[in-house]
Design goal:
The protein is mainly alpha-helical and about 150 residues long. The protein has six helices and two strands, in the order αααααββα. The chain has two domains: about 10-65, Arc Repressor Mutant, subunit A; about 70-120.
Length: about 150
């Protein structure tokens, strides 16, 4: 497998814009390609092996940096359910002034976190035990050639 060619500035700008916009034509225009090229040929940029590899790598980096994975979501829901998180609320301190206090997460929110975890583990799905007794029937339909 050959080494992937380094992208020129215009190709990299296209790839970065495409990641942000999700629209090849608009990404090509913003990267400096002509309107004619962007309208009719921008799909070729997406087919370019180097550009495609760059987009895939950047999406993977962004995913790991900014998007919670399943483990993180499950840990957060568990911590909320167990009351290990607090939330902020405003409290009046007189003469119209307010302060921000940390309070325990409400029972309603803890129940919701427990419900979401329960759904994940299929704790509330109706379970049906279906048992069938089937007697096999053998059909002797092979002709005898004697």
């Amino acid at each position: 497998m050959g080494k992937v060619k380094k992208l020129n500035l215009k190709q990299q700008a296209f790839a970065d814009n495409y990641i942000e916009l999700g629209n090849a034509e608009e990404a090509a225009l913003q990267a400096g390609y002509s309107k004619t090229y962007a309208r009719g040929q921008s799909y070729k940029l997406l087919a370019n092996v180097g550009i495609k590899a760059y987009i895939d790598n950047r999406l993977e980096e962004l995913k790991s940096e900014r998007v919670a994975d399943q483990q993180e979501v499950m840990e957060y829901l568990t911590a909320v359910m167990r009351g290990e998180h607090t939330e902020e609320t405003l409290r009046g301190i007189g003469e119209g002034a307010q302060t921000i206090d940390d309070i325990d997460v409400s029972a309603k929110d803890r129940i919701k976190a427990a419900e979401l975890l329960g759904k994940r583990y299929r704790m509330w799905i109706d379970k049906q035990d279906i048992t069938a007794v089937v007697t096999p029937v053998f059909v002797d339909n092979v002709p005898e050639d004697d």
